[in-house]
Amino acid sequence: MSGLFRNTKLMFLMMFALFQVLPISASAAGTMIKGRVFTEAGPLSAAKVFAFNSFDDLQKGKPPVASAVTDPDGVYQLKLNSGSYYFIARGDSEGRHYFAYHGANPIKVGDDKFWLALMANPEKSLEYVDGATGIEGSILYKGKPVDGAFVAIYTPGKKYKGLGVKTESVGIDGKFKISLLSDSYMVFAKKNFKGMSNRPLQKGDLWCYNSNNPVEVKDGKSTRIELSCFPVNDRASFSTAPTIKEDDLKTFADRRTSSGGGIRGRVTNPEGKPIANIAVQAYMLTAPVTQMYHFAHGTEYATITDESGRFFIPVDEDGDYGVLARNVLGDGPHRGETFGFYQGNSRYAVTFKKGQMVENINILADKVMQQPKESADKKATEIVGTRVGEPVLLTDSVIVNDTVWQGEIHISGVISVKRGATLTIRPGTLVKFKKVDRDNNKVGDGEIMVEGRLFAKGTSDKKIVFTSAEEKPKVNDWSYVQFISSDPDNVIENCQFEYAYAGLMIHYANVSISNSLFRNNRRGMHFTSTDMPVDHCSFVDNQIGVYFVRFEGKVRFTNNEISRNDIGVQFVRQHINLVDFENLDQGKEPPRFDGNNIHDNRKYNFSLGEGQERDINVSGNWWGSTNRDVISEAIYDRSNDKTLGKIEFEPFLKSSVKDSGVRGTVN
User: Fold this and answer.
1) Last residue within a domain, chosen from 329, 347, 367
2) In this structure, are 393 and 455 located in the same domain?
3) Residue 190 sits in which domain range?
4) Does 423 lie in the same domain as 554?
5) Looking at the 3D structure of the chain, how many domains does it have?
6) 3-class SS at 309?
7) What pLDDT digit, counting tens, does each position of 71-129 carry?
8) pTM of the model
9) Which pLDDT score, from 0 to 100, does residue 3 have?
10) How far, in Å, CA of 347 to CA of 481, rounded?
11) CA max distance for the chain
């Protein structure tokens, strides 16, 4: 496929001639849209403005729904029925061709009229040169290079908002080079002037487009393009022409900001102080339960908090939205960054209806992977179950005060521990999860999600057990005990996890784990960024014993028994959209595996997978043999797949570690 505006240029020229004789317009009863087309030199007269029903219509050269020609002041006027439209403009000035694509496309038109300005930049044809398959080029604003921007690559036909399928930073000279598979892509760029580079655009930030979209990438060719920018909601800084908009017409930006529908709230830290200039995002949830993959996707519903920590996100589509606050868009937060979910309910979600204003969506956020703080003693609410009588049944709920569990607790749904609250589980407590699969993904929804703190400290003869409540328990009966950007000083000691998707799921948190058993799970433990000592634990009879995806945090595995799993330990590449995709997982703190018994796993003792190209050193462990070749056969890395990194396992221990794994009684 050739570029959208290249492969349809002849079609447009033919259409322009027709429009000058027989303009296309929507019904006279439609909503009035007025606006103006500018170049940096001033208004663009005799420019053609088009509104298309869909990007597919635009791409395939179908007739627009409406069109208009600008007057000598660059002003156009057209009427449209309610719906979503793609607005573009095209015109000539002083021998140069200009093109404009509105950065908010598709734009929803309702009953209220509004003013829509389009800022046009010169077009430049793309070219192909021999080289690595991909796209290279430069980003310009008023003809000068833009440094500190980032380029976002999208698949044609989807909304071009949020993160792309690939998003990468740009050099200080405004140049970029991105490797891609041969295919067609939409290419845009953005530049933020305040705060971190990847966050929702604010007034004056730059939005940049490529007039040849979608760009075809060919094998063995580097596609050279140019992206020209204009300032968001700041026409005056782009072109100095006098304002002539009627006062009764709201601009598109004012219309969106003053929308009658959206989500309002405030972001504060645990001490109640406002957090200013932090991104708040609302993600449309696609299932009746919240899974973390929802928050790895891009979203058009995002904003920045003001000095008092307040935010407003205009929303125009019915649905349930997960809401969170974070420093940047994409990727998980890194040490020291600020992160927090809305925890008004166990789904972390807001239900929105069109035209409704959802108020008081308040978020507690804090820095991730921080050291423990001193806190005042609080009176705890006890929930007491018993193994003799009826167990306590808990359904979807949020723990907001310090709480103690003991006895037998049955969970149906998600229990969320809110930031600032501590859940203490006493020795001998049995926590059972009923299998409820509301999103039909064949994994039970039962979960304990910890943004606050969990203190689960059993004893050698009174383990704390997390298990299935089913009569015939199976792997995936429940989801996990999950720590995500949690308060510090979490403790898991003398515990047992079984029949889960992942016994423990740990993201951007500090957790101390010891003397615990992980068995009969899909994954015994899954972690990303964490400060986490793991000592004297047993990972046995899981599909994957230990699964991790990042090099960040002080992680050390010692004296553990990892055996009889399909795969003992697996290190994979994170598959989420983010800035600098190629530099994903470039933390400098690989987990240390010292003095563990990692042996007799059914497929591999240690494996790299899913494109993980980083090397890792795991020397100093017992692998079940003193024969290097035998050990190597149970290692999956570059020797098996040249796209992967290398696992360095030498020097290795010559005999097994004594007293490894769980000490004391095992249930």
Assistant:
1) 367
2) yes
3) 127-233
4) no
5) 5
6) coil
7) 999 999 999 999 999 999 999 999 999 999 998 888 888 888 889 999 999 998 899 99
8) 0.79
9) 43
10) 15
11) 90
